[in-house]
Structure formats: structure tokens, C-alpha cells
Design brief:
Layout: E1 8-13, H1 17-21, E2 29-31, E3 36-37, E4 40-41, H2 47-59, E5 66-68, E6 71-72, H3 75-84, E7 89-94, E8 108-112, E9 115-124, E10 129-130, E11 136-145, E12 152-161, E13 173-179, E14 192-196
Parallel strand pairs: 2-5
Antiparallel strand pairs: 1-6, 1-7, 3-4, 7-8, 9-11, 9-13, 10-11, 11-12, 13-14
């Protein structure tokens, strides 16, 4: 991570998959931008102006579980804090950028925590299954040492397999999984199988 430039703003980024996993947990709505005000389209305005409008609207809200995502200019601190809590990553935004509907803007950059993790396969189902747009996947029971806490974690995980023709299940063997960080319960974000660690018994 580089130093934070004055022309950029930064915010935390994460899905709501953690909340969906916990039964009875109320979901929250957290706004990060505003596109219309009183029927007026404001998408062409700079992000800094839209942010001010969003804060003005939010100042009058008193609704449970509704909030505005915080922003900061200290990207390094935000990264360390949010990813340390299990967040997926942060979003870097140019303060001068408009909102481009349906288009990936070069002025917004999502930075995610990609980790190559050594795991031990303790169990699993050798049958590969079609996993939507992700391709193929397999259900595995894994143990690994958490790189931040040092705790040994055991999880049941669905792992994407990019080369299904070459995958064979080997129990009690070590391999490498690539993921986009860790959920607080130890589950992996978007795990993908990278290969077995030689030698395979």
C-alpha cells in the first residue's frame, strides 16, 4: 500500500455473507453514495460533492440499522484494521470522480487481501460439482494455521477447482488454497485450490 494521496478517499468493502451465516442476525443498510436528490440526477458531480449530499441526507436519519459508510484518508490504517477484522478489502476513490452507472470506473480501485494458504485436507467428498459461474468445486474438511492469530482452524469448506480434470482427493495431505482473506469464524473468502504440496502420498 502506498501513501494516501489528497485526491483520494478510502472506504471499507465487504459483503454481507457473514451476516447471512448467523441466523437471527438483523441485516443493515449502509449507503456509500447518492445518485439522486429530490429527483435530480447528481451522478455527474464529483464524488466529494456527492459525499457531502449523502452526509446531509444522513444527518436527518434516525432509522435502526441504516448508516453511511465511513471514509478516511489513512489507507494503511484502514487496511490493517478492516482486513484484520476479516474484511475483504478497501476501495480507493478519486475525490473528483463522477458516478458511472454500469461501468467500472478507473477512478475507483478495489484492493483485496489475496492469501496463498497452506492447508491440510482432513476429509472431503471426491465428487466435483458444478458451482455456477465459478466453474467446478469440491467440499473439503481443512485445517490451517491462521496467519494473524496463530490459531489452528478446522473448517468444512467448498473450494473452487480451476482444473477439475487434474484434481484427485488425497486425505491427510498438504496443499495450497488461494483466498481473499478470512471471515471471523475462520471460513475462507472465495477459496480456490492451487495444488498439492509434493510429495503426495
Amino acid at each position: 500500500m502506498g501513501s494516501c494521496a489528497p485526491a483520494r478517499a478510502w472506504k471499507a468493502s465487504s459483503g454481507c455473507s457473514e451476516a447471512r451465516e448467523r441466523r437471527g442476525t438483523p441485516l443493515a443498510f449502509v449507503a456509500f453514495d447518492i445518485l439522486q436528490v429530490d429527483g435530480q440526477d447528481v451522478m455527474a458531480e464529483p464524488w466529494s460533492d456527492r459525499r457531502k449530499r449523502l452526509e446531509d441526507v444522513g444527518a436527518g436519519l434516525a432509522v435502526p440499522n441504516v448508516a453511511i459508510v465511513p471514509v478516511t484518508y489513512n489507507a494503511e490504517h484502514l487496511w490493517a484494521t478492516w482486513v484484520g477484522w476479516g474484511g475483504e478489502g478497501i476501495v480507493l476513490k478519486d475525490r473528483r470522480s463522477p458516478y458511472r452507472l454500469g461501468v467500472r470506473s478507473p477512478h475507483w480501485l478495489k484492493v483485496k487481501s489475496r492469501v496463498n494458504l497452506t492447508v491440510h485436507v482432513e476429509g472431503g467428498d471426491p465428487s466435483l460439482v458444478q458451482w455456477g459461474d465459478w466453474g467446478w468445486a469440491v467440499r473439503l474438511t481443512l485445517t490451517y494455521t491462521h496467519p494473524q492469530t496463530g490459531e489452528v482452524i478446522r473448517i468444512d469448506e467448498i473450494v473452487r477447482v480451476p482444473q477439475p480434470d487434474t484434481f484427485t482427493l488425497h486425505l491427510r495431505a498438504a496443499g495450497t488454497v488461494q483466498c481473499w482473506g478470512f471471515l471471523p469464524n475462520g471460513r475462507l473468502r472465495h477459496p480456490m485450490w492451487m495444488g498439492w504440496a509434493p510429495p503426495v502420498p
